[in-house]
């Protein structure tokens, strides 16, 4: 399916603009600059499917991508969080949009929470993890930019992240380490997504 057609469907700045919930969905979350756009592009083999949006004041939107023809499932790029200088109303809007989406989207099968391999889970990530646990949306933690750390450091952050995930009700115990740059973990992540949308 990842080799077939994948196309941008629409952006939803508010819940009333969501597409009809007709197929399973998998959503991507992560702090700004975590490598979310790069990972989406690596997964789909498209260079510019997801564009970076690193401007704090920018509109916060959910971006939907159709996978397969006939349509099989959708990828949802959730707005990034954790901008150092984000205006308060932007943060509030993010919180309401993401929380309402997570709680109300029956077709949402899985979320992928992206965490930088160099940093591990930080306080800035706890809000989305709490929201996912609260909404009972099962999620996979995905380490990004694994090429930027040594193998021993990667093992250590994997172990720390695994221990953290075990304490959370909706977290999948397997943590995936990826590098969009090197293609590491990408086939495994595709398999995890296909598993989530077909079970
Ligand atoms: P986003 O804000 O989460 O969408 O992050 P981007 O995908 O725009 O990536 C942020 C920065 O990290 C960019 O400069 C990317 O080139 C870099 N980056 C993303 N993924 C990787 C990776 O796997 N390895 C390395 N070395 N750099 C990456």
From TrEMBL:
Matches recorded under SUPFAM superfamilies: P-loop containing nucleoside triphosphate hydrolases
UniProt keywords, alphabetically: Cell cycle, Cell division, GTP-binding, Magnesium, Metal-binding, Nucleotide-binding, Septation
GO cellular component terms, A-Z: cytosol
Family listed: Belongs to the TRAFAC class TrmE-Era-EngA-EngB-Septin-like GTPase superfamily. EngB GTPase family.
PROSITE patterns tied to this protein: G_ENGB (PS51706)
Gene: engB
EngB-type G domain segment(s): 22-199
Name of the featured protein: Probable GTP-binding protein EngB
């Amino acid at each position: 399916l990842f080799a077939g057609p994948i196309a941008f469907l629409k952006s939803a700045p508010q819940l009333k603009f969501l597409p009809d919930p007709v197929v399973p969905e998998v959503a991507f979350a992560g702090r700004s600059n975590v490598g979310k756009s790069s990972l989406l592009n690596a997964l789909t083999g498209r260079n510019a499917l997801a564009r970076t949006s690193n401007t704090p004041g920018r509109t916060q939107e959910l971006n939907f991508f159709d996978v397969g023809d006939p349509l099989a499932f959708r990828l949802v790029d959730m707005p990034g969080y954790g901008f150092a200088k984000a205006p308060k109303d932007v943060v509030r809007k993010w919180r309401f949009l993401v929380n309402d989406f997570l709680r109300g989207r029956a077709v949402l099968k899985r979320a992928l929470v992206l965490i930088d391999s160099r940093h591990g889970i930080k306080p800035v990530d706890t809000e989305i993890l709490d929201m996912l646990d609260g909404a009972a949306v099962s999620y996979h933690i995905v380490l990004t930019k694994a090429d930027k750390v040594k193998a021993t450091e990667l093992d250590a952050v994997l172990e720390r992240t695994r221990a953290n995930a075990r304490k959370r009700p909706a977290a999948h115990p397997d943590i995936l380490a990826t590098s969009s740059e090197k293609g590491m973990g990408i086939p495994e992540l595709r398999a995890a997504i296909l598993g989530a949308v077909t079970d």
